[in-house]
Design brief:
The complex is a heterodimer of chains A (295) and B (278). Chain A is mainly alpha-helical and 295 residues long. Chain A has one domain: MetI-like (MetI-like fold, Orthogonal Bundle). Chain A has twelve helices and two strands, in the order αββααααααααααα. The longest helix of chain A has 34 residues. With 278 residues, chain B is mostly helical. The chains are: A mainly alpha (295), B mainly alpha (278).
Chain lengths: 295, 278
């Protein structure tokens, strides 16, 4: 009897967390899926069943494909840029040089700065006439490159990606650096005997050695970037002309500006499906790496 | 050969300098704007070093109509409540997962891992409806509850990693000496898991301090604004006083940066171990 009681008490230790997961994570997912089949009226809290109509509407509207396209450009543009910048930076930091700790601290600064502040600052940097970017371009004699950074629909998405990359790549860089330090020295020595230069060494020794970390960081990067709303919201609110409206931004706009909760939930379901692919890849990958093995 | 070495070194240091400059650029701009007076912010040609260095922006932020101290307190209340509650709820769970024989352990851990990937856009609408129904709109409670959706899974995951690494033998002897499970946890386990507790609470603090989307959605009374939405709400009003905004930005960032660098190594370790949220 005492045994059995003890068993039940064991579950009590996990109960609050289980409750949070059920009430604040599992139920909302269920509710979003459910809402996507309804038209929801917030003020009266009534819902009318419309079945798949919301999905047909989305799939036959041009807007939806535009949101989808912008999401893909935004996500992969950001993640790939981060990778391309973070790898050389990690390689540089992997050398011994004087004042390395200063360099490390400087490069950690963006990582430690709140997103809101980054968004605000870059909005101000990109502002026409009095912003820093235009000033620097003019000072460098590149005045022709001055643009209406956040107001031109052709450029706005790029302009919002810049600070996101600026903030994002340092996370990858420090992860890659940590991985690089675990690559055995004798592999480099062997490559040197074979006459490999620094670039060859990077591609034949370093990169294969840190590949698992690269995969994990970038899978996470895809999920975080696709989900990110606030950078876009603060800088452009999805504008101009919806040119920075990714699917998550569309969810926010449709729900909280236009109060069309059903339609927003349809978009939400599509985001969930897209993320599911990457989440499965991620879990598969770390399960293979053995991190979940002892669980 | 020597010349080659020198060019190599030069290229190396130029690359280094470029990385450092690009990382520092926005901070130079924040500082430069914050220290200028109102008219100089909107003066062409732009000077990076202000002609007249002034602290009037900071005075305006702290004593002016923005009511900075109130927003600071709001943010502090929400952030501390989130951190304390997350730790209190997650610690027993993480401990039980490493020490007890339970059914569904693996399933629970996998759920915790997966729940860190649930998109905010999917959570926001149902949470909003729940909060409206409970009459919690415009309350700090709504923010703390919503924050738990990201902090609890993260803290459990990180602490699970830390607890797994601790030797069980000391705990067993403590229990033979008559300590209950709970006493063992508090007296033996928690002190040795201190780095993990510090890293996960600092991480929760930093994330909750800058939380934006929930606050934007659940709060619309000015008095209840947290710092992030207070700052963004000043864009566009009265022709955006960038000098004030940049001064306020510095004040908001400073606590986070101090905290971050204070436990830098712990943060990196904790994040590499948990490697789930950035």
């Amino acid at each position: 009897m005492k045994r059995k009681n003890e068993r039940i008490w064991n579950y009590a230790w996990t109960a609050p967390v289980v409750l949070i997961i059920v009430a604040l994570l599992a139920y909302p997912i269920f509710r979003t899926i459910q809402l996507s089949f309804y038209e929801y009226n917030l003020t009266e809290a009534t819902q009318t069943f419309i079945g798949l109509e919301g999905y047909w509407k989305a799939l036959s509207s041009e807007d939806f494909y535009s949101f989808l396209y912008i999401s893909v450009v935004w996500t992969f543009g950001t993640v790939i840029s981060c990778l391309v910048i973070a790898l050389p930076m990690a390689a540089i930091l992997n050398n011994d040089f004087r004042f390395k700790w200063i360099m490390r601290s400087i490069l950690m600064l963006p990582w430690a700065t709140p997103w809101v502040i980054i968004a605000l600052t870059w909005k101000w940097m990109f502002s026409s006439n009095f912003g820093m970017i235009d000033y620097l371009l003019r000072a460098a004699g590149l005045g022709v490159l001055v643009k209406n950074w956040l107001g031109d629909p052709d450029i706005a998405l790029f302009s919002v990606m810049v600070p996101t990359i600026w903030r994002g790549y340092t996370f990858g860089a420090f992860m890659y650096l940590a991985a690089m330090q675990t690559v055995p020295v004798h592999l480099y020595e062997a490559a040197e005997i074979d006459g490999a230069g620094p670039i060859k060494k990077f591609f034949h020794v370093t990169l294969p050695g840190i590949l698992p970390t690269v995969v994990v960081v970038n899978l996470l990067g895809v999920m975080w970037t696709l989900n990110a709303i606030q950078m876009i919201w603060i800088m452009t609110q999805g504008g101009p002309l919806n040119s920075t409206t990714t699917l998550p931004v569309a969810v926010y706009k449709t729900a909280f500006l236009f109060h069309r909760f059903g339609e927003a939930s349809v978009y939400g379901v599509f985001i969930g499906l897209m993320l599911l692919i990457f989440a499965l890849l991620y879990i598969q990958f770390i399960a293979q790496k053995g991190e979940l093995a002892e669980v | 050969m020597r010349i080659r070495l020198i060019t190599k070194k030069t290229i190396f240091y130029i690359a280094l300098l470029l990385f450092a400059l690009s990382a520092l650029l926005p901070y130079i701009w924040i500082l430069s704007t914050a220290l200028k007076n109102f008219s100089e912010v909107f003066t062409i040609p732009i000077r990076l070093i202000p002609r007249h260095v002034t602290l009037e922006n900071f005075k305006a932020v702290i004593y002016g109509q923005m009511d900075f101290s109130q927003k600071f307190m709001n943010s502090l209340i929400v952030t501390i409540a989130t951190t304390v509650l997350s730790l209190a709820l997650s610690t027993p769970c993480a401990y039980a997962l490493t020490r007890f024989k339970m059914k569904g352990k693996r399933a629970l851990l996998q759920t915790i891992l997966v729940s860190q990937m649930i998109p905010l856009a999917v959570l926001l609408i149902p949470l909003y409806i729940i909060i409206v129904k409970l009459g919690l709109l415009n309350t700090f409670t709504s923010l703390v509850v919503a924050n738990l959706t990201f902090s609890v899974p993260f803290v459990v995951w990180v602490l699970y990693g830390f607890f797994t690494g601790l030797p069980i033998s000391i705990e067993e002897s403590a229990m033979i000496d008559g300590c209950s499970r709970f006493q063992t946890l508090v007296r033996i386990v928690l002190p040795s898991a201190a780095p993990g507790l510090a890293a996960s609470s600092a991480y929760t603090f930093i994330t909750a301090w800058q939380e934006y989307m929930f606050a934007l959605t659940f709060i619309d009374s000015q008095k209840k604004f947290t710092l992030p939405i207070a700052l963004t709400s000043y864009i566009g009003q009265y022709g955006t006083q960038w000098g004030n905004l940049m001064a306020a930005s510095l004040l908001v960032t400073l606590p986070v940066i101090v905290l971050f660098f204070g436990i830098q190594t712990l943060m990196v370790k904790g994040l590499t171990a948990g490697a789930v949220k950035g």
